[in-house]
Amino acid sequence: MGKTQAGSVVEAPISFTDVIFLSDKPQLPLEVRRLFRQKKLSFRLLPMEGYRQVHLRPDLVGTVIIDAEGIDASQDQRLGRIMETLERDNLGIILLTQRIKRAVRSFSLMPSDSSFSMTGKFASISLDALWARISVNLADRKKQESGIAVKPAPSLSAAQRFATNTSDDASSETEPHTDNLTEQLRLAGMVQRDFLPAHLPNSDAAQWAVTFIPAEWVSGDIYDVARIDEQHIGFYIADAVGHSMPAALLTIFIKQAMVLRETIDMSYRIFSPTEVITNLNLKMLGQKLSGYQFATCCYGLLNVKTRQLSFARAGHPYPVLFRKGHEPQQLETRGALLGVFDNAEFTQSSVQLQSGDRLLLYSDGAEALVGQLIDNAGFQFTEELLALRDAPIRQIVDALTELQSQRRITPEEVDDFTLVGLQIP
Question: Can you list the domains of the chain with their CATH numbers?
């Protein structure tokens, strides 16, 4: 196997490849190329956008290494989309974030003065450790191919999957076990919903509307709308990678780690949106979460008296502002994915809201109904959303929810669907 120059036309894999190396650089690091050849691995270098071709035939790929070195994480939103797409394809991912010019003791046949940092959670690893991660991913892939472990189609609910995997002949023997697993998942979903707000802080100063539709029993999305004091309301949507149980567990961690204010003696201080997001990112990194756990988030802080809205985001879709007499507007601010880069920077923006303004936060499961980024044209809102530009926020949320229920989607498109809407009366 050789390399494909970054930016060239790339076709879907036509034969099994052990390692796909995604990078915007023109060639593989020399040490990595030597490792592949020594271990007799088939490999292919593709540009970052080559993940689309991998997605077409994931069954022909062993594992994927993503070279994120040099990527401006605060601007490059591709990384989250790439990792989530490959995760849905059940592909093992290894993320290299930076090259470290420091020797790491190596027991391989090829000692090297270079090492790599992975996902910002490891100090550094040798090529031996990199090979260990690759071999584990390849071993898992072989098990999947042999039928030992097969990821269920995400279009089925948990209950449907268990029912589908139970044969007629064995149904009587496995029915108690199936029922128990289904019940456990149902209860897990109920526990997760207990972490959602029981009531929204509606008032004469701010009206709220939300929709929360998990793809399965449990969700990789979580949201909150919380009154911090008489003058401030904090609200957010966070989206953990995937929509399975690991993602759901991460949302519970996010909920507990999302601190909006601190108490100092007899007083308190409200954290700014950048502080909230930065602290959350550091807590996720500090946990050194196993697997490929990362998340996106958009957090807003509303002053209900002045109508000043401050917000920050971490790899999440931009909020959309609806103002009478104007086209819908994306509120842009820079911010990297959560739990990936320990040196990530998050910027904060503010907007002065006025009577009649409406704001929409959404998870990526709703992107198809909101709009998409088109080459040479920028972000384009859907006709359905544009038709709702003057509607009250409750009507916007209800209409998008109804449209989502009517969509015919493929298994690869199944995702959690969450909307949080705000209207200034």
Answer: 17-146 (3.40.50), 196-423 (3.60.40.10)
* Non-local CB neighbours of 319 within 8 Å, separated by 6+ positions: 298, 300, 311, 313, 330, 331, 359, 360, 361
Quote the CA–CA distance of 313 and 362 in Å, as a whole number. Answer: 12
pLDDT of residue 278: 96
Distances (CA, A) of 97 to 27, 365, 376: 16, 27, 29
Q: What's the Cα-to-Cα distance from 94 to each of 21, 50, 69, 129, rounded to whole Å? A: 9, 16, 13, 11
Comparing C-alpha atoms, which of 34, 44, 36 is closest to residue 64?
A: 44
Report the relative pairing of strands 17-22 and 61-67 from DSSP bridges.
parallel
Q: How far is CA 33 from CA 27, 44, 109, 236, in A?
A: 9, 10, 14, 43
pLDDT tens digits, residue range 315-342?
999 999 999 999 999 999 999 899 888 8
- What one-letter code names the amino acid at 216? E
Kind plus residue range of the DSSP H or E element containing 128: helix 127-146
For residue 252, give both structure tokens. 């519970």
* Residue 68 to residue 117: CA distance in whole angstroms: 10
**Which single residue is written with the structure tokens 């009649």?**
356
